[in-house]
Design goal:
mainly alpha, Methyltransferase, Methionine Synthase (B12-binding Domains), Chain A, domain 1, Rossmann fold, 3 domains, 17 helices, 6% strand
Length: 363
């Protein structure tokens, strides 16, 4: 079944789904206990020759169950059913690459439903079951579906080959050549570096490269783009400080780091706050040195509840603070996030222009 057909099927059925605030609240309060129960069940059931594939991938699955819980929390709280399907297809591809197929996925969903029933009672648990039951009824279609991966350019393909070969001089040569051709730092980021990082993530997700391969390639690219931005400093200076921050729980910080380097080259004094910084620590940092604006980065919609909570606290603590947001996770939930923040730039250049206009409007 094509992904578009599955989306149409989900869109039709989810119209009848009603999730009460009480059900969302109970899931939020029970989420960690539910995950612990699911993981305990899998550890116990993994013993046995017939479950050797599960044993081999147990650490991956334990982490995957945590991410699934975060995704469900976002889906339930904001009723973004379409994202449920996109995430489920990505999850299916990832476990398929580890030789875990429909049988595992069915077992996982049933275990989740049993565990949820242990902590949440009817009628709320029945409301929460609707989305899981839909996935269960469409498991085979999920495994037949493919995400629409954009083809990578020849330059990106070459870049990846040299990254995996740990040939930094060739990688640097490709980056500089690409810049000389495009005359744009943002083109280097959007058309070369980010596609390479996305492809590295995809290859790891589908178990085609090891964790060591992923770490080595990412670290090499990271060191080289720092050199690249340093060599292209513009010399412009703005007398304003901004913060670029990953939302709490966000593990992917490279997009935010690249934005920080880009804006630093455009003259802004940038405080970059990396991945997984707790909400309270972000607030304390801003209290000590309140910036003119903060840009929040979120790569997946699973962190939408964390974004919403952080923005709510920022509004209360710093009413004059300009709040911008961006990242891969904003494509699916754009309408929801647009109501939370002041602006959602779609590019680095647009972000810089928005900040400049905000400064001028306050002058």
């Amino acid at each position: 079944m094509q992904t578009d057909t599955l989306h149409e099927k989900l869109a039709e059925e989810c119209l009848e789904w009603q999730i009460s605030d009480s059900a969302v609240k109970q899931f939020r309060e029970s989420m960690h206990n539910i995950v612990a129960t699911v993981n305990k069940k899998f550890r116990l059931d993994a013993v046995g020759i017939e479950n050797s594939d599960i044993i081999r991938n147990l650490d991956f699955l334990m982490d995957a169950h945590i991410h699934l819980a975060e995704m469900l929390m976002a889906v339930y709280q904001f009723r973004i059913w379409h994202d449920l399907l996109d995430e489920a297809i990505c999850y299916a591809q990832s476990i398929r690459g580890r030789e875990l197929y429909e049988k595992y996925f069915i077992k996982m969903l049933k275990t989740w439903m049993i565990s949820m029933y242990g902590y949440i009672k009817p009628p709320e648990v029945n409301e929460l079951f609707l989305s899981l039951d839909w996935l269960l009824r469409n498991v085979y279609e999920l495994f037949e579906s493919e995400t629409n991966e954009a083809p990578i350019s020849s330059e990106t393909s070459q870049l990846l080959n040299f990254l995996f070969a740990n040939d930094k001089s060739k990688v640097e040569e490709i980056i500089n050549s690409f810049y000389n051709d495009k005359k744009s730092e943002e083109a280097v980021v959007n058309q070369l570096i980010m596609p390479a990082l996305v492809e590295i993530g995809r290859l790891w997700g589908e178990n085609k490269i090891t964790v060591a391969d992923e770490h080595l390639a990412t670290a090499s690219l990271r060191s080289l783009y720092h050199v690249f931005f340093k060599s292209h400093y513009t010399g412009i200076r703005w007398n304003q400080r901004i913060a670029v921050c990953c939302v709490p729980g966000e593990e992917h910080e490279i997009g935010a780091e690249l934005l920080s380097l880009y804006l630093g080259n455009r003259g802004w004094s940038v405080n970059f706050v990396g991945h997984s910084t707790p909400e309270g620590e972000i607030i304390r940092m801003l209290e000590q040195n309140t910036p003119f604006a903060i840009i929040l980065s979120m790569s997946i919609t699973s962190h939408l509840p964390a974004l919403s909570s952080l923005v709510y606290r920022l509004r209360g603590k710093f009413p004059s603070l300009n709040i911008l947001a961006g990242g891969g996770g904003f494509r699916q939930a754009r309408e929801i996030i647009y109501k939370l923040v002041d602006a959602m730039p779609s590019s680095f250049e647009e972000c810089n222009i928005l900040l400049e206009n905000m400064v001028k409007s306050h002058a």
